[in-house]
Design goal:
alpha+beta, two-stranded antiparallel ribbon, 4 strands, 28% helix
Length: 93
């Protein structure tokens, strides 16, 4: 999958990741998604093809492994690809 910000492949987060307790994970919800989309536009990016409703915001380093909501750790991915490929891969990690 190509990162629309860089036109390069979305990076793999690395080896040896350790899960963090749920209480230590960053919150992700509608407010955080909205803040990401605002920053997306503030940085000069255009609306993804088909609009935001067809996209999930992917954490490159997942929250359950200590990933943050920093802009550079997030990337929009078509929802069907995110759920079918990314989420299923992490379930088996």
């Amino acid at each position: 999958m190509i990162d629309p910000r860089t036109d390069t492949s979305i990076p793999y987060p690395g080896e040896g990741l350790t899960k963090v307790p749920t209480s230590q994970r960053v919150v992700w919800g509608g407010k955080e998604r909205g803040a990401y989309i605002k920053e997306w536009y503030d940085r000069g990016y255009s609306t993804p093809e088909g609009g935001w409703s067809g996209y999930d915001i992917h954490h490159i380093r997942p929250r359950e492994y200590g990933g943050t909501n920093d802009f550079d750790n997030l990337v929009p991915v078509p929802r069907d690809v995110h759920q079918a490929e990314f989420n299923s891969w992490w379930r088996d990690y």
